[in-house]
């Protein structure tokens, strides 16, 4: 697997890359079973390139000890960041993420579906690894989230083994 584009997150006005995918549990939940308009039930988010197999890049914010989803964009900036799902072999459908996941909710969306640890990459890139999120950085911020709320935060110099 190619090194993956990072999710984007803003914390206290600073922008970082994130080696975590907090939207994934919601996608799995929403796309499990039959979905209207998808003949095989479980659509596949269409990757625009091998550096973004998940098919999207989430833009996030930590504010007032809460995790917020700001935007979801496809990885192909040439295509205006649109996200596609593969509904059948060689057939794509444009995904309206606000409609599909949030019933057209506007503004920032609290990530109440997410509980887990965010791994935020900080400082200089120490070693590039051409696979997944395996590149090594100077340090990491680990943020533990429960139902969209920050419950713990720490900085470490070694990437956690499960990240």
Short description:
This protein has 163 residues and is mostly beta strands.
Could you characterize what this model shows?
The chain contains two helices and eleven strands. The chain has 163 residues and is mostly beta strands. It has one domain. The protein is globular, with a radius of gyration of 16 Å.
Topology diagram in text:
Layout: E1 7-11, E2 14-18, H1 24-31, E3 44-45, E4 57-63, E5 66-73, E6 83-88, E7 91-95, H2 97-102, E8 109-110, E9 116-127, E10 136-146, E11 149-156
Parallel strand pairs: 1-4
Antiparallel strand pairs: 1-2, 2-9, 3-6, 4-5, 5-8, 6-7, 9-10, 10-11
Label this structure with key terms:
163 residues; mainly beta; eight-stranded mixed beta sheet; 9% helix; 44% strand
Let me know the largest β-sheet.
8 strands, mixed
Shape: globular
Low confidence ranges: none
Strands of the widest sheet, in order across it, are 8-5-4-1-2-9-10-11
End-to-end separation: 15 Å
Q: Report the helical percentage.
A: under 10%
Instruction: From the alpha carbons, calculate the radius of gyration and give it in angstroms.
Output: 16 Å
Number of DSSP-assigned strands = 11
SS class: mainly beta
Q: Secondary-structure element sequence?
A: EEHEEEEEHEEEE
Tally of domains = 1
Strand content: 35-45%
Oligomer: single chain
Mean pLDDT, as a whole number? 84
Q: Total helix count?
A: 2
């Amino acid at each position: 697997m190619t090194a993956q584009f990072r999710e984007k997150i803003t914390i206290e006005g600073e922008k970082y890359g994130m080696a975590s995918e907090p939207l994934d549990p919601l996608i799995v939940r929403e796309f499990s079973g039959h979905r209207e308009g998808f003949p095989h039930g479980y659509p596949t988010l269409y990757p625009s390139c091998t550096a973004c197999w998940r098919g999207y890049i989430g833009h996030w914010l930590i504010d007032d000890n809460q995790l917020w989803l700001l935007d979801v964009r496809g990885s192909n900036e040439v295509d205006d960041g649109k996200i596609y799902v593969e509904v059948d072999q060689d057939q794509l459908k444009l995904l309206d993420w606000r409609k599909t996941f949030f019933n057209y909710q506007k503004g920032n969306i609290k990530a109440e579906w997410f509980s887990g640890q965010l791994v935020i990459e900080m400082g200089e890139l120490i070693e590039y690894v051409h696979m997944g999120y395996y590149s090594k950085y100077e340090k990491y911020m680990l943020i533990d989230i429960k139902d969209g709320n920050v419950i713990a935060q720490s900085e470490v110099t070694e990437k956690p083994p499960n990240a």
